[in-house]
Amino acid sequence: MPIDEKTAKEKIVQYARSIFERGLTSGASANMSVRIDSGWVITPTNTCFGFLREDELSVIDHDGNLIRGSKASKEFTLHKAMYDKRPQDNCIIHLHSTYATAWSCLPQENLTDCIPTYTPYLTMRLGAIACVPYFAPGDTGLAVAVGDVATKHAGVIMANHGPIVSAKTIDACVYGMEELEESCKLAFMLSTKQPRLLTNSQINHLKQNAKP
């Protein structure tokens, strides 16, 4: 269920700084939102994850209006499209993390499962990752494309743009994004090898025993 505004702001600042300090994003290239009872708290436009302040975070009502704080990220429509299809989720993170963004620049054969399953953990945290076509940042077409796959996918790779992840809690969303980035890193490391993938049977077992 949604958390209160104060807690949401504290968590966003805490996790955003950690994400920045560990090199998972740079500059003003990321955004994060948390659902609250009155709407959402989201990182402002053109701000860096490493230097956010609670008082500048954007508070948006259910109609998309800015209630207080700085101007919201232009990617709010993208977040909203995902929330609309995933009412059970309360946090969304979009990064330009190195390996997932690099993976987004490659052609994908399977648009509903675009990251190879080498370990159990991406399946356990997010399930299969979808890939959607390229749109310019802030383009409403990108929000529509992500919304179209969000019902079945908690993680999406946006072509030539990067990853977006949705989860029930802030912690789960951060962990899911971290696992997605690590899975893309593994994919690059193993691309010239002959790696052993998990079998369909093993993947189905993970899905059937995943925590609700």
Largest sheet: 8 strands, mixed
CATH H-level name... which superfamily?
A: Class II aldolase/adducin N-terminal domain
Strand order of the largest sheet: 4-3-2-1-5-8-7-6
SSE series: HEEEEHEHHEHEEHH
The proportion of residues in beta strands is 15-25%
Radius of gyration: 16 Å
The CATH topology turns out to be L-fuculose-1-phosphate Aldolase
- Tell me, what is the CATH class? Alpha Beta
What is the count of DSSP helices, taking H or I runs of 4+ residues?
7
List keywords for this structure.
212 residues, alpha+beta, L-fuculose-1-phosphate Aldolase, 7 helices, 8 strands, globular
Give a topology summary.
Blueprint: H1 5-21, E1 31-36, E2 39-42, E3 58-61, E4 66-68, H2 76-85, E5 91-94, H3 98-104, H4 121-125, E6 130-132, H5 140-150, E7 155-158, E8 162-167, H6 170-189, H7 200-208
Parallel strand pairs: 6-7
Antiparallel strand pairs: 1-2, 1-5, 2-3, 3-4, 5-8, 7-8
Helix pairs in contact: 2-5, 3-6
